[in-house]
Amino acid sequence: MRSSHSNKLGIVGLILIQLVLNCCKKPQNPSNSKVKYKGALHTIMSGNLDATVAMDSLKPLSNLYALGALENLKGEILIFDSEPFISSVKDSTIEITRSFNKKAALLVYAQVSSWKEISIPSNLNSKRELEAFIQKMAIKKGINTNVPFPFVLKGVISSLSWHVINWQDTDTIHNHQKHKKEGLKGIINDERVDVIGFFSEHHKRVFTHHATNMHLHFKANDNLLIGHVDDLILGKKMILKLPNNGN
Are the CB atoms for 147 and 199 separated by under 8 Å? Predict the structure, then answer.
């Protein structure tokens, strides 16, 4: 009888220890939204534009969201729910390729099977205010903002400045402003867009630039325009989508 009683006390003790450990756990990102990356902006800025990953290695992945730049900086990459969109410049026009048969100098990606939608307030007037809102909502939804996480913006944008890079092979001096100018650029207004973004406070000059915690690419005009987001002004009734971790 004494042995049986001791066993019961031991089981109860183990249960209590497990409950305490669970309560002490920090919020974690959903396992299927873990952000991975190949290449780094600081490597590109040093002049190394070589491929770091063959995109077809990611083709088998489901629910894949990604952005990046092609090898030699000859275009922009966006993958939206496992559908690839490659934007490059040909004869001073944008050419869209729907293929994984490319290589990337930089690629940031995550698999997200379920999203939670959040209405974006209409009083957000700048990219910096959007960044703060995304971080605030991520914390509220239990996402650990100490590690990178993906997000999506959907709706009619008021204004969006974009570029598609087309780096000249003979140019060996790199900086962010030159990258924005080498290729094609423009502004769209009052267009429906899908934007994929990655947020991180700890990856500046890796996959975000030094002045922001976000890297954004977009698609618009029935998938006929894909590019890097330089700046934006949100429209009304836009939606933020964050990985759904059950909260």
Answer: no
* Burial class of 15 by CB neighbour count within 10 A (0 to 12, 13 to 18, 19+): exposed
The token pair at 75 is 């275009």
- pLDDT of 32-46, one tens digit each? 689 999 999 989 888
Write the pLDDT tens digit of every residue in 119-134.
Answer: 999 899 889 999 999 9
DSSP 157-219: EEEEEEEEE---TT-----HHHHHHSEEEEEEEEEEEEEEEEE-SS-BTTTB-TT-SEEEEEE
CA-CA-CA-CA dihedral for 167, 195, 41, 174, to nearest 10: 30
What pLDDT, on a 0 to 100 scale, did the predictor assign at position 24? 44
Q: Which helix (H) or strand (E) holds 31?
A: none
Which pLDDT score, from 0 to 100, does residue 110 have? 97
Across residues 5-9, what is the average pLDDT? 51
Taking the C-alpha atoms of residue 210 and residue 224, their distance in angstroms, rounded to an integer, is 30
Query: Per 3-state DSSP, what percentage of the chain is helix, strand, and coil (rounded to 5)?
Result: 25, 40, 35
3-state secondary structure of 151: strand
**Burial code of 161-178, b = ≥16 C-beta within 10 A, e = fewer?**
bbbbbbbeeeeeebeeee
Residue in the structure block whose two tokens are 């002004």: 233
Long-range contacts of 50-53 (CB under 8 A, 24+ apart): 50/105, 51/103, 51/104, 51/105, 52/104, 52/105, 52/106, 52/107, 53/103, 53/104, 53/107
